[in-house]
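Box 3.1 A note on notation
Throughout this textbook, protein chains are presented in two layers. The first layer is the amino acid sequence; the second is a token string describing backbone geometry. Keep the layers aligned when reading.
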Amino acid sequence: MATLRNRQNTRIPETEQQLGNSSNDNNNGKPAAPKERSDPMIYIIFLSLLFDLLAFTIILPLLPSLLEYYRVNDSSGLYAWLTTRVRWFQQLLGAPDRYLSVLFGGFLGSMFSFLQFLASPIVGSLSDYYGRKPVLLICAFGIALSYLIWACSSNFALFVLARVVGGISKGNISLCMSVITDVSSVRTRGRGMALVGVAFSLGFIVGPMIGAMFAIFSDKSASGGAWFVLPSLLALGLALGDVLVLAFCLRETLPQAKRAREISSALSYGLQLLNVSSIFGFAAIKNVPRKDTQALRTIGLIYFLYLFLYSGLEFTVTFLMYHKFGYSSMDQAKMFLTTGLVMTLLQGSVVRRLPEAKIKSYAIFSLYLIVPAFVLVGLAESSRMLYAGMILFAISTAFAVTCLTTLVSKYGNDDQKGSVLGIFRSLGALARALGPVVGSIAFWCLGSKITYIAGGLLLFYPALALQRARI
């Protein structure tokens, strides 16, 4: 492990004690050890992700209105065909009619994540051979194309095609993390991963607010035609901004000497990662110590279980707010604003400054904290209690994924970082592909209270597993 860490750093970073005693060294006339700085490319990645996530989150509050628009105006017949299939499943489960949109939306969300699950490891492996920048640019162009198709989607089939193109192109997230790993030492990697979290938080603050405003507008003029063109063009503009940032500001961070030597070996990684058992076993990561492989498998399983339960409960929260509390699109946007601000403040001030030695401890803390968060949401009978649960949820979220990603990024050789993070993101995408459907079915059949309390209690297991893991 020590050899791996020395290879990842260009110099041995100073310890916390050395940093704390730097003023004493100055008083004695000795030069203080310079603080290790983050590479500027980390901030370019932050800007790229911010553009991408702002565009991505605009659509979230619009989905109910979009589904209603296509229910009335779909000329392709796809919406009616899918509705018939969903209604058959609804009757099979005995779910109430008013929750039909919960399951329908869950299937659409799961489809997007499943495509991301397929794309992330392949994209990560290809970047290990071709380099990060060209593959990132291809993903960014694909995402922009998806918004262009959305803007032109006069029928539901085109809208679904837009989501398919967008899902396939979403391997950019794992590539961004690979870039941060390329340019970071063990000491600075946590700061870079925290900036990724800040980008997500800001995206989920501003994007839904913009989308909520469009949702209000659409409710007043839904009969006036394709009202979604304007928000889709805004998303397209943000995606093109991302393309420009990557094209003109990002340098290649994976030198030729550190890349995979053969395209066949890089592609074999991607093909292996279509096998679920291979993904959980990190089978594509070879020539690393056995204990490192075991650590990867342990973190990967914990991450999958956490996100599977988390995403199922997270996805249905908007329906809970709508059906139980009668929240409008703007009320929901205010909730996203509150939780997003909490996450941004924590990730910008605390998470990005966590020392390496404390990453695991904070990851364990965050996994335990999500349990009372969802129990509170399930028991909530007032907005005050709902907000309390969602604030705990935001605090946990601020630490969990960032800390787990930082932990897993320590493993693998230089030419395997893209593959490691690709597998990791793929496990997350698989969890998010399954979680919303399972969460929606539980919401239908058991109701919100039992669903959230049971899901929250089940989240004890990932926390306990990480606490016991020797990584």
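The CA atoms of residues 55 and 235 lie 4 Å apart. The longest helix spans residues 290-323.
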